[in-house]
Amino acid sequence: MDLRSDTIERSDFEYQEMLGEGGCGVVYRATFKTKYKDHKEAAAKVLTHLRREEIDILRRLRHDNVVNMLGFYADGPTKVIFFEYTPYGSLYQYLSQDELTPLPNELRRRWAKEAALAIQYLHNKKILHRDVKSSNCLLFYGIPGTLKLCDFGLAKDVDHSQTTSTQQGTYRFWAPEVIRTDDRDHAVFSKYTDVWAYGMLVFEICSRKLPFVDKEWQTVINYVGKGELFPTIPADCPEELSYIMKRCWRTNPKERPSINRIVTDLHNASEFTEQWRMVNTFKPQDKNGRKLKANRVACCSNGDIVVADNFEHHHRYIVTKEGMYKMALTPPRPYQINYIGSIAINADGYIALTDWTTPFATIFSRDGKFVNRFQAASSTDNNLTGIAVDKDGNLIVHDSQRTVTQYSCPDGRQLNQIQVDGNTQELPRIATNSHHQLLFYDDSTSTGITKVIAVNNEGKEVFNISPQIGERATGKTYRGMEVGLCGLVTGGENDEIFIAMKVCIPNIDKYSGRIGRPNTGHVHRYSCTGEFQQCIIRGLHSPHDLAMTSDGSLIVANDDGILKYSVEPALVVSKTMWKPKASPDRTGKDRVA
Fold it and tell me: What is the model's pTM?
């Protein structure tokens, strides 16, 4: 096994304060002398016993709700693993700060789902966590933040005296079959013991208390092992979370739901927690009041929308959020813009346009004045196909030879250049996210299926998405219907990915023969690592492009004009969610006084 790509030298980091100590090692905050994989600091876990197979497992784990490994350092018997660092502490610390104030139900549901997704990811990788609890869940990106599970695969089974001596003893989360095992070092851990502990974690989230906090450890060990003691579920707990806890706490492990089923039930229960509704629609107009079509859109921070019409008039213009004309984007002679490929706007308000027919990018100010024009393709023989803006306001430009170049804006000074793997389409969209990844359309598969690929800053693929409408995969033809991608943006609270798709339905004309007409479309939402979350918009009439406003609303350009969709929270418990059978010994009440 080659660890060189993840190896960190001792001279590259410094230990800072100790963050915690457990049965498997000590954790320090460490700082890097120079940025390592875009991180200035990390959580350094110092271990004395660690197999290389465990390192290999950690290197392959990448998920939104798992604390990811950054690197590895070895010095004789001492091994140090570097993980993502958060200054916001653990879920246990947050819950114990104010035990009397219940969490909002939306937050309870979100954290329960994030924890379930993390465990599902580990189980799908054939990894048992064995120590699921709130102190092994860290909060990232603020308070309250995103929940990430840590210490996966490294938790070691400790003896009875060690675990019961602390307030956060793991015994509170042990399943009955683990308690009934005399030898803790050879206890039978399984996916269903993780599920039991997950139910206890959900109880922590709903009650802000440890399970059995008012019971002596001997009572817990004796009665939980017999299946006669369960936590008291709070009366204000969301119905679906109460159901899940009761199912997780079934004494017979074979009767507990799998984590896949739990994730499905959480999704079914909360698939309507965000309803995207159309809040505005208009047809953009030119200065004479003539209605124009739009097949490229981008959003300014002040609410204005930049629109390009490549169908009839080849206009580029800025309109208000109500669709009223403000100004045209016209370069001075002899410069020309023939066919807009992509539009990008940075935080300073500079508007960058690419022309599919030239290797040049054109920059305008937010008030429509021409600023600059420069060659952005890797050579004069290449055309530009996509443009985006990174979080620092620089331009990311993609050309027809799969070369991606970073330029400062607005002066067009080249900063970096990489070659992208694969065979990206000639006319792709391009987007960036906060993980320094680039997303493109790609049709490199032998099946012809169009997918979205994410690459790192070296151009190597990190993950890919193969969107589909029903059973129809993009890039394929089904009974004459062609499914294709037409819009790609990233954003939202968790840096999600939004993909617009359209279906071209053939129309038979007795005079001209068969005519393909883009007829309908959908918008899907994916997590920042490519997992499908929800179809948020359906039934679009021939969509062409997708953009996001500064407040997180979506702008869709289609044959009906410009449509604006905003999200409205509205919880609806799905009827398809399972209902546990009534059982007198599964009331969620303590069986022991």
Answer: 0.54
Mean pLDDT of 483-501: 83
Q: Which of helix, strand or coil describes residue 467?
A: coil
Beta-bridged to residue 28, according to DSSP, are: 18, 44
Distances (CA, A) of 333 to 9, 130, 201, 373: 56, 69, 66, 12
Burial of 133 (0-12, 13-18, 19+ CB in 10 A): buried
- Cα–Cα distance between 380 and 382 in angstroms, integer? 5
Q: Considering the domain 4-83 in this protein, what is its CATH number?
A: 3.30.200.20
Where exactly are the structural domains of the chain?
A: 4-83, 91-272, 275-468+543-568
**H or E element in which residue 361 lies:** strand 360-364
Question: Cα(first)–Cα(last) distance of the chain, in Å?
Answer: 54
| Residue 553 vs residue 142, higher pLDDT | 553
Pick the closest to residue 107 from 490, 493, 434, 567 (CA basis): 493
Q: Can you tell me the distance from the alpha carbon of 438 to that of 462, in angstroms, rounded to the nearest whole number?
A: 10
CATH of the domain spanning 91-272: 1.10.510.10
pLDDT band for position 208 (50/70/90)? very high
* Structural tokens at position 276: 């995207």
pLDDT tens, position by position, 313-347: 677 888 888 788 899 898 998 888 888 888 999 98
Which of 388, 365, 368 has the alpha carbon at shortest distance from 376? 388
C-beta of residue 484 within 8 angstroms of C-beta of residue 509: no
Topology of the domain covering 275-468+543-568 = Neuraminidase (2.120.10)
Q: 514 by DSSP, 3-state: which? A: strand
Is residue 269's pLDDT more than 80?
A: no
